[in-house]
Amino acid sequence: MTDTETIIAARRELWLALAPLWLDREPSEKDYVRMADEIDRHDLTAKQLEWIYRLELSPVLAKYQASMVGGWRNFDEDTILPQLVGHCKRLTPWRRRLWLLFSGLTTMMTRHRWGTLMELVLARRGHAID
C-alpha cells in the first residue's frame, strides 16, 4: 500500500475502530462489540488482523500510552489518521522486520485487550479459543 487514498479506503474504519485499545481507559464491553463488528465487515484472517495490530497500529499508537502527558481518553481522527497513513507508506520490507522485532514492546500495554477482542472475534466466527 502506497497511495494515500487506497490506504485510507482499505484501513480507515478498521484503524479507527481499533484505536480505543490504546486509550488510557479500559475498553467497555460495548467498545469490544463495536470493534468486533468492524472486524466482521472486513474479510481478514486472525493472522492478518495480528499483523495490522503489530505492524500498522502499535508503532504509531503505543507512543500515546508511553507519553508523560497521559490523559489520552479520546483521540483526534485528524491527528491520528495522517500518522497511521504515513507510517504505512514507509513500511518497506526492512521496516516491517524492524517493527516486528520491536512489536513485543509496542504491544505490551495492549496485548491483554487485543486478546479479549480476538476471543470475541474468534467466538463469533465459531473457532475454538485456546
Task: Describe the structure in brief.
This protein is an all-alpha fold and 130 residues long. It has helices spanning 4-18, 29-40, 46-66, 77-89, 93-107, 111-125. The protein is built from six helices and no strands.
What labels would you give this structure?
130 residues; 6 helices; mainly alpha
Structure description:
- It is a single chain.
- The protein has 130 residues and is mostly helical.
- It has six helices and no strands.
- It has helices at 4-18, 29-40, 46-66, 77-89, 93-107, 111-125.
- Helix 1 packs across helix 4 (77-89).
- It is globular and about 35 Å long.
- The protein starts with a helix and ends in a 5-residue tail after the last helix.
Give the uncertain stretches in residue-range form: none
Count every helix, treating DSSP H or I runs of 4 or more residues as helices. 6
Give the N-to-C terminal Cα separation: 33 Å
SSE succession: HHHHHH
E-strand count: 0
Write down the Rg.
Answer: 14 Å
The share of residues in helices is over 70%
Mean pLDDT equals 89
How would you describe the shape?
A: globular
Which band does the percent of strand residues land in? Answer: under 5%
Global structural class: mainly alpha
Oligomer: single chain
- Summarize the biggest pleated sheet: none
